[in-house]
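Forwarding the complex inputs:
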Amino acid sequence: MKESVFNKIRNEQFKGKVVTAEEAASWIKDGMKLGMSGFTRAGDAKVIPMALVERAKTEKFKVDVYTGASLGPEVDQHMAEAGIINKRLPFQADKGIRNKINADEITYVDQHLSHTAEQVRQGLVGPIDFAIIEALAITEEGLIIPTTSVGNSAIFVQEAKHIIIELNVSHPEGLEGMHDIYTPARQGERQPIPMTATSDRLGSIGIPVDPEKVMGIVVSTDLDAPSTIVPPDEETATIASHLINFLREEIKAGRLTESLAPLQSGVGSVANAVFAGFLDSEFTDLEVYSEVLQDAVFDLIDAGKVKFASGCSITLAEEKGKQVYGNLDQYRDKLVLRPQEISNHPEIIRRLGLISINTALECDIYGNVNSTHVSGTRMMNGIGGSGDFARNSRLGIFVTKSYAKGGKISSIVPFVSHVDHTEHDVDVLVTEQGIADLRGLAPKDRVELIIENCAHPDYRPQLRAYFTEAVAQTGGHQTPHILEKAFSWHTNLMKNGTMLEAVLQVQK
Amino acid sequence: MKESVFNKIRNEQFKGKVVTAEEAASWIKDGMKLGMSGFTRAGDAKVIPMALVERAKTEKFKVDVYTGASLGPEVDQHMAEAGIINKRLPFQADKGIRNKINADEITYVDQHLSHTAEQVRQGLVGPIDFAIIEALAITEEGLIIPTTSVGNSAIFVQEAKHIIIELNVSHPEGLEGMHDIYTPARQGERQPIPMTATSDRLGSIGIPVDPEKVMGIVVSTDLDAPSTIVPPDEETATIASHLINFLREEIKAGRLTESLAPLQSGVGSVANAVFAGFLDSEFTDLEVYSEVLQDAVFDLIDAGKVKFASGCSITLAEEKGKQVYGNLDQYRDKLVLRPQEISNHPEIIRRLGLISINTALECDIYGNVNSTHVSGTRMMNGIGGSGDFARNSRLGIFVTKSYAKGGKISSIVPFVSHVDHTEHDVDVLVTEQGIADLRGLAPKDRVELIIENCAHPDYRPQLRAYFTEAVAQTGGHQTPHILEKAFSWHTNLMKNGTMLEAVLQVQK
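Prediction (whole assembly, two chains):
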């Protein structure tokens, strides 16, 4: 055993367990259920998945893959494309697996990210044959130290029949001590989660494990796949600017202070750009209580804007990753990584009163949001944590550009083709056009704000016409609709390649 | 002052404040915002609303009415029909006000029942000019003892500029001591809610009030309007039977014990019938953690089946009310009434791991539920607490008859015309036909269970045909739909009076 590995396995009971990836992969049989570490391309096991992909060249088998969130290419691209994933949950964000899902070749269960752990605990997800967990080290006390994410690893380790550890020697040692592992007891037997501030520590620095269950340790040197977010553009910067102006108004109204409230932001480029917008703002002493900590969070820490960030994973672009992981000591007292059950827990989200910022695919004139399904049928990524946060936060904000595909798609439609967030949970909508504050408003009173402030000007006449006709046809019901035409924008897009009505007119 | 009244105002600072209903009503001006006690026809102020209705005969004015939930006829029928309600939230269930809402004459904001208090605290609902609170007594310490509900009274009293108390001398004195008033601090400044069992007491027996804010006390003798639920029929009894068999299977699977988990049931006849079903079951030592405690809960206490019930209101039919209120001592150690912010709090619902049972208007083949809008446009009652409970409970169960209007309407449709509960939050669906356990299933895998187990046989061929065509058209996307036909059942109903396709065929 190399010294670097020897030093990372600090408990005698684990030292004799090192095996090759091929051997560990050989234990995994057709039909098994795997609980894998990883959350948004961070902290996922990599070499065992690739050994499974290799095995698939000569052997037919399929497994269920349960994770924290989306994984890197080893699983969500290569395992998917090798045809060895039967069922996948609770989130993905890779084209490789997405195509298989929408071709009915992989069963995908899209779940609230705080819910999976409860379902594992109840045995509804599982029983899990193998937990496969990337680790930074195994401590003297036998704790598994996670790497760049915690995700669902703690509950997988607790509930799985067997465990395989991928000991990754390439992650910086400074990650040790940044995790806070707290696992609630069964429902009905648990105590309040003892957290009243984003920086509170509740548990241990690693995941407790029964050494008997650990079948093998595989050494890995593969780094996380870097994040795929793109830098802010003019429109996402404008969205950030509208949002920050709105928060200034909330301060004036006495509903927020200068340090705002703990911020949550969904994964992806738009959400990252919104956070980046805080860089040039006057706000300071900010706190983050989120799932993924993306580049902008670290830029805000570097700039002295964010004083503490709690997440369940760190997902960075290549350059930012080098800087952060090369200087981890700077972040030691400003970061904590928690299980996603805690980072996304309604109890904490409501108690701390988060400001949550998540991305919409489309929003309708009454404020219902579709986060997941293109044209109502084709899965994009998944709901992720947006439902955990939006429903329970102080301010549930959704952001989107007002259009897509060069204007052929309006993000504001008469009736969303799939509902992930109901009218009850969408407080504020922001596009590059402006902002609609929907709080306390009845459905009909939201319409003008959404159309005039958020929709792209090209689509406003069509939206106004739909609403006017719907009001006339129903006589002013609570939520006027013309059901025959509710999805006509989507069907127009499918038939004519655009939601713009001019084409409809020509077709008539 | 009559002795009965004198004895109920036990603090000197309040004794001089008694006025007539007419005088109190005269303080309420056009445009004011009223925070009123009451939750599902229980514990609402009655004589001041009727004095306002009287005033409306000679004066034009309108007020906003914020409450706990639906109120009795004094407000939700008579004030509505008198045209003096401008805006109403967060819930109603009266034909009088419903007609005005759907004629665009009253603005109605349909909210999660746990959310209103947060919005009042933030000033988004409000600022409240007058809290009008029915009380059983004012204690020596100056606490307002509520009557048959707590609802949002505590937060209204805390945040309102002025308070009027309707001291109701007809309610039984034994209600005193049954309330537990606990109000969380502002978000970000609050502690965990210190509850780990349904019977835990967290606060005081009455609502703390600044005596300076109390402008008047009006004496009332009017009793709550009795509940309008109808007794279980053959079909609701069958629904209960399916549900109880399902719970037996959960025990066998090791996910529940013989005492189940704290039960929540929505308001109304179907939900009451389901609870009544437990009467003939083997289950014992049951606990209820719900909003409204309806007749069946007391029947279950009487039968020794329920050992403790926590709610935020008691709403009973006339006969049951006489029995319960005539023998309140029997229930003293088995009941607690809390603010709805606590009875419906996601923190507690998730911690205790409730089994929640709520009513659907319609459900689609993928498990999305419409609880509120007839044909997607016309408001029925409101979402109530169903969203608070279903999202955060251990088991989110929805019940409905499989059909309505003598078979002209199918409660199972291709695409619900309004979404209140998304596919992510609906664990189990029960109709008189059977039960669909949707937990852990992908959308396409839910379809057969919902159609074959829950839909009425008359509608199954149509549902199968829709799904088959949708799968073929999309090539097996995550959630197959034919958007052109998604609402064809609803439009057929509007045009031809039925969702049955035979009529569609004839029309072609």
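Chain B has two domains: 1-220, 354-507.
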